[in-house]
Design goal:
Elements: H1 2-10, E1 14-25, E2 28-38, H2 45-62, E3 67-79, E4 82-84, E5 87-91, H3 97-117, E6 146-148, H4 151-156, E7 158-162
Antiparallel strand pairs: 1-2, 1-3, 4-5, 5-7, 6-7
């Protein structure tokens, strides 16, 4: 029992930043996108500004006539797992796949409890709540989770869980 509790206490959390943009373009108004990045160490302002510039260049390369209305980044939280589109990832800090899966279960349970505390019920956002909602993108469905340690993830020192 104590070992499991100590593992959870010692599990490392990493800084997560969200990059976002809204813009108008030739054929569409109020377009928007964003993503989150987990950094292994606290990033410098220069690193964040460089990521933001790359983000903007990616948008400009895909869309014509872009006029940015709002673009930026913000610190989200220090956490063990970072959400992408229907997957989460973290830096590999686990001795076994079993420990990685347990860490992810604990993360999902924490976020579900936070959503409930914030007035969101049964994994659904409550539009009347002024508190944030953490979208798990299906991670709460244990049966859909697939642990990835492919060459790409391994090269980056990450573990990904698709769901």
């Amino acid at each position: 029992m104590w070992k499991g509790l100590m593992d959870k206490m010692l599990e490392r959390k990493f800084p997560i930043y969200k990059f976002y943009a809204t813009w108008d373009q030739d054929d569409f108004e109020n377009n928007g996108t964003g993503y989150s990045i987990m950094y292994k160490e606290n990033p410098s302002a220069e690193q964040l500004d460089e990521e933001l510039q790359q983000f903007k260049l990616g948008i400009l390369a895909k869309h014509s006539g872009v006029i940015f209305k709002n673009v930026g980044y913000e610190f989200v939280e220090d956490e063990t797992w970072c959400c992408n589109w229907f997957n989460h990832y973290t830096y590999n800090q686990f001795e076994t796949d079993s420990k990685a899966r347990q860490s992810f279960r604990d993360f999902v349970d924490r976020k579900k409890q936070l959503n409930h505390k914030n007035g969101h019920i049964f994994n659904n956002m409550n539009p009347d709540s002024k508190e944030p909602y953490y979208c798990l993108m299906g991670a709460e469905d244990y049966y859909r989770r697939k642990l990835c340690r492919c060459e790409h993830c391994t090269k980056l020192g990450k573990i990904t869980i698709d769901h």
